[in-house]
Amino acid sequence: xxxxxxxxAFIGGFEPKNSFNFTVSEITEEIRDIKSKxxxxxxxxxxxxxxxxxxxxxxxxxxxxxxxxxxxxxLSFPDKKLLSLAIDFKSSGKNVKVLTDDYSMQNxxxxxxxxxxxxxxxxxxxxxxxxxxxxxxxxxxxxxYEFDDCEVCGSEVFKRRIITKK
Length: 166
Ligand SMILES: [Zn+2]
Prior knowledge:
Elements: E1 2-5, H1 7-11, E2 21-23, H2 27-30, H3 34-45, E3 50-51, H4 56-65, H5 77-91, E4 96-99, H6 103-112, E5 116-117, E6 126-134, E7 140-141, E8 157-165
Parallel strand pairs: 1-2, 1-4, 2-3, 4-5
Antiparallel strand pairs: 6-7, 6-8
Helix pairs in contact: 4-5
Bound molecules: zinc ion (ZN).
């Protein structure tokens, strides 16, 4: 089984123990609390976690596949990359499971017929927040920023998920 982890998997306390765990590079920015960061970096160092980029074609295919689902609007670029990675694995015949607590992700995974599992269990208080962030220069904007494009570099502004432990 190949596991694909989003930030919530680390925030929820999942610790990769074998070498079949994958994520995408953007996740490093979503993990903000120290404990999860340590687990994440240790797993990378010990070879229990790999950062892998999906095939760009898969991202296009994903967007096509879910274009009629409202969830596409709620997915960030890193979310789409994670889902695309899952599609890559599945289409190369691997058994894959996505670990995520994000409902939009789970909905899309249902549509794609890819198994998933929640990580956050009762007793762990994960606090979800959103921050409007430029995809290009990574500048962050206040919630009331009203444009879809970055005023500095013109790239797309998306809502980045930030999760912290209480
Ligand atoms: Zn920008």
